[in-house]
Amino acid sequence: MSKHIVRRLLAAASLALPCAAMAAGYPDKMIKIVVPVPAGGAADTLARLAGEGVQKKWGQPVVVENRAGANGNIGGEAVYRAEPDGYTFLVSPPTAIAINQSFYKKLAYDPNRFVPVSIIAANPNVLLVHPKVPAKTLQELIAYAKANPGKLNFASGGTGSTPHLAGELLKMMAGIDMVHIPYKGGPPAYSDLMAGQVDVMFQGLATALPQIREGKLRVLAIGGEKRHPALPDVPTLNETMPGFISVSWTGMVAPPGTPADVVAKVSAAIREELMVNGAGKEIKGLDARDLIASSPAEAERFIKEEVARWGKVIHSTGISID
């Protein structure tokens, strides 16, 4: 072997050593988890549970920082520009990870370059109507909307949110016209649905299940690939409109360039805490079957599917924010 080749091999090995050494001694200082939405929501709760698990396992402090605003872009950009040393992570709903790159004409960061760590949880969205709406099935809702174009409205927690895009997908696939009513957050939109101020809304099953069981809201269909054990008699939208999938999920990603062995170590710790040690049971209303704590590879595949799914809806409908 020539001396030139030997020098090149030694140089490559020396570059790999810092990453390996860091993974071996990781973590040795505080870890920060950025959540790009206000405190109190599902992403915030899951971030704190994941953080508690990591802190318990390694004895290093974990701080959760809420950096809300611009549909998740403020927090997303902060993590994107952070040092890729395994001490800063983003825990977010789909917007900052899988939607905004299609929704905004310009972004100050590239979500596609994040390093996936884990899909922590995923909860199917359900299609809800207020009882005043004269439809008890998805087919009846579609028929009513076609007979009364523009009469029905549907609420969401904001333009570009998963419930908004699910409503746009329903309009597109069913060929109906409904008016979108965006709110500043999911809770006020959901409150107005229960009050009958709006007609239709997609909402995560974990949130909606109590009101469904009490008869305050009517569920017409579920957005998961399969029927859910909590509502076994409710059909999926996929049964009527093949390919219609809509879930609310929370994922963890790291800045571009974060070493894969560190990412794998963090992902395994989260899975151990939520799935083995049972911390996920603390999440009120979230069915244990909806906890995932996936591997980085599984998270990468899932995120790519979501990017493609909602990118198609956004580009087909022409909705965007400058």
User: Can you summarize the main beta sheet?
Assistant: 9 strands, mixed
CATH class of the largest domain: Alpha Beta
Stretches where pLDDT is under 50 for at least 5 consecutive residues are 1-21
CATH topology of the largest domain: D-Maltodextrin-Binding Protein, domain 2
Class from secondary-structure proportions: alpha/beta
Instruction: Give the H and E element order.
Output: HEHEHEHEHEHEHEHEHEHH
| Gyration radius over CA | 22 Å
Overall morphology: globular
Mean pLDDT, to the nearest integer, reads 89
- The CATH architecture of the largest domain is 3-Layer(aba) Sandwich
Q: State the share of residues found in helices, binned by percent.
A: 40-55%
CATH homologous superfamily placement of the largest domain: Bordetella uptake gene, domain 1
Number of helices: 11
How many DSSP E strands? 9
Strand content: 15-25%
* Termini Cα gap: 57 Å
Number of domains: 2
Keywords: Receptor, Signal
Family: Belongs to the UPF0065 (bug) family.
Protein name: Tripartite tricarboxylate transporter family receptor
Pfam families: TctC
